[in-house]
Structures are given as structure tokens and as C-alpha cells.
Amino acid sequence: MNEAGETQELRITPRQALGRLKPYTAGKPIWEVQQEYGLDHVIKLASNENSLGPSPKALQAIQKQLPDLHRYPDERASGLTQALAEHLGLTANQFIVTNGGDELIMLISRAYLELGDEIVVPDPTFSEYEFGAFLMSGTVIKVPLREQFAFSVEDILAAITERTKIVYLCTPNNPTGTYISELEMKKLLDRLPARVLVVIDTAYRHYATEPDYSDGIDYIKMGYPVITLNTFSKIYGLAGIRVGYGAASEGIIRTLLQVKEPFNVNVLAQAAATAALRDDEHVQSSCRMNEQGRQQIYDGLDRLSIPYSESMSNFILAELGEHAEILYFKLLENGVIVRYAKGWGLPRHIRISVGTSEENQRFLEVLEEILELQD
Ligand SMILES: *Cc1c(COP(=O)(O)O)cnc(C)c1O
Fold it and tell me: Where, per the database record, does this protein carry N6-(pyridoxal phosphate)lysine (predicted)?
């Protein structure tokens, strides 16, 4: 401490860009709610995780790797990259494996954004795109979604300037569950200037059941400047081990590899992801559980006359109205964690991840109870 009572440390100034960063608000962990409210039984429907758990094949693969933990991981995750190439019909050089999808967003930002460059994002959407841009001293142009959270190609095109470097399309979009149709996606890609990189975040692609949904892979094959973001955190049930990947042209992947740390994805994550990718049974039962669970929650919300958006994902955005925040805390007190949507500029909404049928049931029951108490 000096005379003014400051520690010396405070005189070391961080980069100005840090002033604009907002901390990420994660879904509350189960243990925290257990401690805070003194509860035993808590369910978490707040982070779009897979309530079925991880792929059993992934767990076996992790076991098999354990004796080799003294070795550094494969820098390029060749085994997984090769498996991805076969899985999606691209070449191995068209993939970059990352420490969760989040790391890919950071790498894209680091590789492409200069001071003052602009990114265009739908609003509301996943907050990490903004985080990556702010970190690189970029500017974020938000394009509000239209009625019922629909994407508008016209609105996105109207937001493009000389400085636009990246357009982010999260489809299905987090937190709205809405998506951009294949036709609209093509329209947008055909009209964007060639110098704009389009990041298509398909973290929830497995859950999209509409036939006109596109996961963007075809556009990579056709040579559009597209990179798709994917994660093993959602349907594959591996959020805790952190692994995701990008798919793009070999040129874009080479650029991203330049800014990647050598050993970004650990040995266990690489093995787990490779096994999970091949576990069709786990993926299919997860999809089934989600479709049934979505319907179960829709039906329950209908009974309670609560409006919601139809979702192509594993979460549902519901409009609870002016008491949404109070209801969110009441749910917590009763051991049900959902996400309050205020951080997305939606103070009347909550986002509920689809869980097992017991979890969905419990959420609906508790919600009904606390709504009755309110009246
Ligand atoms: C969960 C999620 C990701 C990636 O999450 P990771 O756990 O970092 O792989 C990316 N985009 C969206 C929209 C997500 O919801």
C-alpha cells in the first residue's frame, strides 16, 4: 500500500478494451443452490446440458486414456479431426478442434479483428461473440430479431459497413430457439461482400427438426466464406471436459491454427469426443428425449397460459411477464434452476433447458405452485 492507500498493483493499467467486458453469467451450479438454500434435491435446467449424461462410449474412452496422462496431447487432435472428416464429408484439414466452442470464438476474434473492426450479431444471442470482439477492441453491431424472434436477412444486410469483418448467425439461436431457414441463409450468403466471414454457430444443430434447417456444412463445401461452430458440450453431454470444433475451408483453418495454443485440447477430451461422435445410439436417444421433453414443457406452459417461443433447440424461452424475476428466484428456492433472461434484454422471460421427463415435470409442478401462491 502507498500513502493514498492504493496497492501498487492498481497502478498497472490493463488494456482499455477490458473496460467494456461484461462478466459471463453462467447458469448457477447445483452445489451452489444446495448450499445457498439448504436443499438436498436440486435440478438444473439452466445451461442446456444433456440430462441423459455423457455418452457411455466417451466414458470408456476416457478410462482407456488414463495411463497415458503423462504424455502431451496431440497438438492437432488428428484422431478426432479424422473422425470429423468422415462424419461430415470434409477433409481433415478443414477442422480445428478447440477447448470448447467458446475457444473457437476467441480464436476467430484474435485472428480476424483489428481495432475498430465490426461484427454483426443478431440480438438477443449468445454473449461470447461480443466478448471476443470487445477483447480485440472491435465494435459490435446488434441487429434486433423481428417479431417472434425471426431472423431478417434484410436487417442484417442493412447493418453491413466497410468495417464489417464477421457476421455471426447462431442457428438455432440461443436463447430464442429460433433458426434461419436454408433459403434465407443462402440469400444472405449470396449478398454479403466476399470480405465478410460468416460464423454459423450450430451448437444445437442436432435438435433442429424442421426440414429447412441448414447446419451450414453444404455452404463450406460450395466455397462460401463460412465457418461453422460446433460443440461436444450439448447433445454429446461433455460440457465438463471442454471440447468443440470449427469446420471451414483449409485457408480459414490455417489462419486459426496460427493463433491457437499448441496443446489447447487435453488428451481425455480428444478421446471422449472421438468416441461420442460415433455413439449414434446416445445421440438418438438424446434427440428423442428432447423432442418429447419439448412437447411436455409446451403442454405444461399451455395449461398455465404462459406464452413461449417454439424451439428448434433443447431449451425454451418462456414469457412469465412482469414478475419473471421473482418467479425465477422462487423456482431457485424450490430447487429448480432455470436461466433468467434479463441479461439478454428480456426481463420478462426465463429460458428453461429441456431435461428428463421427471425434471420437466418437477419444473412444471413447482412453477404451477408458485403461480398459485402469487394470485
Ligand atoms: C454452449 C454454446 C456454445 C459452446 O459452448 P462450449 O461449452 O464452449 O463448447 C457455443 N455457442 C452457443 C450458442 C452455445 O449455446
Answer: 234
Q: Quick one: which of 358, 236, 368 has its CA closest to 302?
A: 368
Ligand 1 atom with least separation from CA of 243: 9
Q: Convert the pLDDT of each residue in 125-136 to its tens digit.
A: 999 999 999 999
CATH number of 13-53+281-374: 3.90.1150.10
Q: Do 252 and 172 touch, CB atoms closer than 8 A?
A: no
- State pLDDT tens for residues 118-161: 999 999 999 999 999 999 999 999 999 999 999 999 999 999 99
Ligand 1 atom closest to the Cα of residue 174 is 13
Distance 242 CA to ligand 1 centre (A): 10
Q: Which CATH architecture has domain 56-279?
A: 3-Layer(aba) Sandwich (3.40)
- Write the residue with the smallest CA distance to atom 2 of ligand 1: 203
- Residue extents of the structural domains in the chain: 13-53+281-374, 56-279
pLDDT digit string (tens) for 287-345? 999 999 999 999 999 999 999 999 999 999 999 999 999 999 999 999 999 999 999 99
List CB contacts of 201: < 8 A, sequence separation 6 or more. Answer: 101, 126, 168, 169, 170, 171, 174, 228, 229
Per the CB < 8 A criterion, the answer to whether 294 and 316 are in contact is yes
> Is 244 touching ligand 1 by the criterion CB < 6 Å?
yes
Distance of CA 367 to the CA centre of its chain: 26
173 touches ligand 1 (CB under 6 Å): no
| Residue nearest atom 5 in ligand 1 by C-alpha distance | 101
The number of helix segments (H) and strand segments (E) in the chain equals 13, 12
Place of cell 433459403: 183
Does position 1 have pLDDT exceeding 60, yes or no?
Answer: no
How distant, in Å, are the alpha carbons of 1, 37, 81, 146, 253 from that of 221? 59, 51, 17, 30, 14
Q: With pLDDT > 90 as the criterion, what percentage of the chain qualifies?
A: 93
Mean pLDDT of the chain: 96
